[in-house]
């Protein structure tokens, strides 16, 4: 298939343009730590819910005359690490497609970048879908998930809507088999009607990138391995809770898994601490909600922001409690959203 494409697509003559949109996902069973940094193979399986808010829209246009890729991010030229990661990703797509043209990438993000709100998940999921189409790579959803993983691990899950599990795969296999073994897929779930109430405690970029923080945690935290093992048990329990449609159990498992992940970071040397006093105040408000009979459970990622899982019917009440706990901070209500997809001409 690939050699046929190489033979029939003459660079410069079949230059393509494609636009894709993707939404972030929030992990209920966390990804923290890689067993292969180059291939983005995670140490553990993880499981997430894709959101219906904060889309990233990315257009990839092949530029046959250009000597280098250009990347525009929210209307401005991307520089530094962001540009390097996107260019490296395009290089991978060129390698796979057997094409050599450079590309113009125009990406628009509606979520604060680098603040633990999963902007790299929506970003690389949209880029994978758009770049694969622009370069003529024919991939099914599994193939797109594997490809998105190479941009940012969590992006593998945003290819799918609703709940998705990302398989850690086989880091012990040879590179090709290892690469094929790690991808996300949808998880069977009963009708849960969940909401995630997102308290943006701080929208600024984080001090330690999740990439650096997860490496340090794996290398130095004595709590990392025990968490990785217990996370496997959490995932098994989570699958059962999702199939049963038991949202309170889903929340309870998600909360313990996330707090466990943060415990591994606190035990890293030096410690990585994403929780701020405001995060703890919001976590306290979630405890109070539970005492008041609301099935609200918190999760946190690589940043101080707190996401509260609850029945959709309670979302407004939860948002109110969170607003009171974090005055002046933005609070968003999300539901389960769609997976990454190409946009038609008229949707752009
Ligand atoms: C997650 N996080 O499962 C976890 C929980 C943060 C905490 O995925 O290095 O941006 O690009 O693969 O995907 C953040 O890490 O890291 C993340 P890379 P990514 O959502």
Widest sheet: strand ordering? 8-7-9-6-1-16
Question: Mean of the pLDDT scores?
Answer: 93
- In terms of DSSP E residues, the strand content is 15-25%
**In one word, what is the shape?**
globular
How many β-strand runs? 16
Name of the CATH class of the largest domain: Alpha Beta
Question: What is the name of the CATH architecture of the largest domain?
Answer: 2-Layer Sandwich
List the uncertain runs.
1-14
The number of distinct structural domains comes to: 2
Tally of separate helices: 11
What ligand molecules are bound, each kind once? ligand 2P0
Query: Which fold name corresponds to the CATH topology of the largest domain?
Result: Ribosomal Protein S5, domain 2
N/C terminus separation: 30 Å
Write down the Rg.
Answer: 20 Å
The helix/strand series, from N terminus to C terminus, equals HEEEEEEEEHEHHHEHEEHHHHEEHEE
Largest sheet: 6 strands, mixed
Specify the structural class: alpha+beta
Helix content: 25-40%
């Amino acid at each position: 298939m690939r050699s046929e494409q190489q033979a029939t697509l003459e660079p410069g003559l079949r230059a393509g343009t494609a636009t894709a949109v993707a939404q972030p996902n929030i992990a209920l069973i966390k990804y923290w730590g890689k067993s292969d940094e180059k291939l983005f193979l995670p140490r553990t399986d993880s499981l997430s819910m894709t959101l219906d808010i904060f889309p990233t829209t990315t257009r990839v246009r092949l530029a046959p005359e250009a000597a280098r890729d250009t990347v525009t991010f929210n209307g401005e030229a991307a520089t530094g690490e962001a540009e390097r990661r996107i260019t490296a990703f395009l290089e991978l797509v060129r390698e796979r497609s057997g094409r050599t043209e450079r590309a113009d990438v125009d990406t628009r993000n509606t979520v604060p970048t680098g603040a633990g709100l999963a902007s790299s998940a929506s970003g690389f999921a949209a880029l994978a879908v758009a770049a694969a189409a622009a370069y003529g790579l024919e991939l099914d959803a599994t193939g797109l998930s594997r490809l998105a993983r190479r941009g940012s691990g969590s992006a593998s899950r945003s290819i799918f809507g609703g709940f998705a599990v990302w398989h850690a795969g086989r880091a012990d296999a040879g590179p090709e088999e290892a690469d094929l073994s790690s991808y996300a897929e949808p998880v069977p779930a009963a009708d849960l009607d969940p909401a995630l109430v997102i308290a943006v405690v701080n929208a600024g970029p984080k001090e330690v990138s999740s990439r650096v923080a997860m490496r340090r945690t794996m290398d130095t935290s004595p709590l990392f391995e025990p968490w990785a093992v217990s996370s496997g048990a959490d995932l098994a329990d989570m699958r059962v809770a999702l199939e049963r449609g038991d949202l309170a159990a889903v929340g309870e498992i998600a909360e313990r898994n996330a707090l466990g992940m943060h415990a591994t970071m606190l035990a890293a040397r030096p410690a990585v601490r994403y929780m701020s006093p405001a995060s703890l105040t919001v976590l306290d408000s979630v405890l109070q909600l539970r005492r008041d009979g609301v099935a609200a459970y918190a999760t946190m990622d690589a940043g101080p922001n707190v996401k509260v899982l609850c029945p959709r019917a309670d979302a407004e009440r939860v948002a109110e409690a969170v607003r009171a706990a974090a005055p002046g901070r933005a609070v968003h209500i999300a539901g389960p959203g769609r997976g990454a997809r190409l946009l038609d001409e008229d949707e752009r």
